[in-house]
């Protein structure tokens, strides 16, 4: 009788490291295939572990793993907008975008998985995870604008710009990360200023902000 095949030797990791490994493997798979087409066996194979081990960390199965993977990416992405309120506004915004685009560049699979839609695995909870990233980003930007009680037109402009940044980032990944990231950052900052200028024609609050933003003190 032939000897039984040896059982794969699993590398021992801490609980936190093992969970992070599984989340990274899941994000990579979810980014390139529809979540409903990814099985726990696929995640186990990608991470080099057994299926029971995946269940040990995520007893709720694929739905729990999918939501945890989104939360992991979302938490890091939210932190990108946490910029000190020092110095002119435009350089502050550029620094926040530097961190955001560095995340996109270094975690392209996770970023795509975070924002991809149309999955039957999506629930109100997964939608809430993505919406929370956008909400936090908008709150950070509005705080940096230093406008007491921002009105609906200004708030809408900020949310529209965040949507534009998301779309541009996904297209940038599809285009092989072209143009260069520094050019993309400057382009997005210029788009924000341009969007504020358009809104300023209809909203005095935004007009005052735009005048302050474009004053020599903010160059």
Task: Note down, in words, how this protein is organized.
Helices cover 69% and strands 0% of the residues. The protein is an all-alpha fold and 219 residues long. The protein has two domains: 15-68, Homeodomain-like (Arc Repressor Mutant, subunit A, Orthogonal Bundle); 71-218, Orthogonal Bundle (Tetracycline Repressor, domain 2), CATH 1.10.357. 27% of the residues are buried.
Biggest β-sheet description: none
Count of discrete structural domains: 2
Number of helices: 10
Considering DSSP H and I runs of 4 or more, what fraction of the residues is helical? Answer: 55-70%
- Give the quaternary arrangement of the chains: single chain
Q: What are the low-pLDDT stretches, counting only 5+ consecutive residues below 50?
A: 1-9
Taking all Cα atoms into account, the compactness measure Rg is 21 Å
From the coordinates shown, what is the CATH architecture of the largest domain? Orthogonal Bundle
Mean pLDDT over the residues? 84
Secondary-structure-based class equals mainly alpha
Number of strands: 0
């Amino acid at each position: 009788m032939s000897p039984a095949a040896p059982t794969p030797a699993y590398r021992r990791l801490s609980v936190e490291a093992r969970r992070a490994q599984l989340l990274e493997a899941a994000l990579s798979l979810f980014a390139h295939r529809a979540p409903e087409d990814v099985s726990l066996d696929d995640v186990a194979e990608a991470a080099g572990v057994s299926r029971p081990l995946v269940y040990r960390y995520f007893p709720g199965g694929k739905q729990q793993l999918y939501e945890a993977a989104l939360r992991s990416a979302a938490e890091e992405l939210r932190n990108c907008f946490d910029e000190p309120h020092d110095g002119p506004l435009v350089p502050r915004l550029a620094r926040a975008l530097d961190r955001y685009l560095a995340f996109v560049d270094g975690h392209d699979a996770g970023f795509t998985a975070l924002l991809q839609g149309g999955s039957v695995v999506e629930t109100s909870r997964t939608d809430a995870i993505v919406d929370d990233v956008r909400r936090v980003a908008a709150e950070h930007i509005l705080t940096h604008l230093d406008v007491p009680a921002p009105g609906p037109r200004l708030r809408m402009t900020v949310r529209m710009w965040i949507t534009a940044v998301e779309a541009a980032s996904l297209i940038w990944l599809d285009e092989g990360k072209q143009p260069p990231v520094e050019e993309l950052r400057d382009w997005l900052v210029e788009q924000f200023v341009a969007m504020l200028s358009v809104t300023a024609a209809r909203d005095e609050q935004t007009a005052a902000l735009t005048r302050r933003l474009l004053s020599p003190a903010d160059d």
